[in-house]
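=== Structure Prediction Worksheet ===
Name of assembly: unnamed complex
Input type: mixed (protein and possibly other molecules)
Chain count: two
Listed entries:
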Amino acid sequence: DVKVTQSSRYLVKRTGEKVFLECVQDMDHENMFWYRQDPGLGLRLIYFSYDVKMKEKGDIPEGYSVSREKKERFSLILESASTNQTSMYLCASRLGGAGASETQYFGPGTRLLVL
Amino acid sequence: EDQVTQSPEALRLQEGESSSLNCSYTVSGLRGLFWYRQDPGKGPEFLFTLYSAGEEKEKERLKATLTKKESFLHITAPKPEDSATYLCAVGTSGSRLTFGEGTQLTVNP
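=== Predicted Assembly ===
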């Protein structure tokens, strides 16, 4: 079974703090993704990574950065947290490579509250 | 622009009352149609991937079908434990998924 884990289920931070969200997958997947999920807006892609040290902007990258130093780990960084970044953050992974399934597997999510 | 629309937004059923959820899409170059189930406060759980019109897949009380413009998730004789939000997504170029906003299903005993 594919397993995607996220470092925290719930997180409370103050405005202006630097926030790190960690995601680890154990299936040697090449591709990893960060989404946020908000009521009425659905899942929106923030950043994704095709492979180690590679990253691509998604639809809403402003205010976020990412890091992928190891294949199994993909970090989302909020450089200076703001209240409008209060959301559910979801990490996903995909096998990658030519001919591979497009199916993405999700972690349990981190619910972030910025005060 | 790729678009995914799910209907209805919410659906209430009695236990045993079969129904269908709809996912209509417009996409240039479909690379898969995906169904996920999401329980409150949790991440989406993968259910099915469909790749071509006419394809069908089944899992317990769920059956997913695909045409060139839409997909249906049929729920036969649902149980209360089937209550969840069901998400539809389409795969597009660059390994990206575009999601619909989901259908919130409630099955009453």
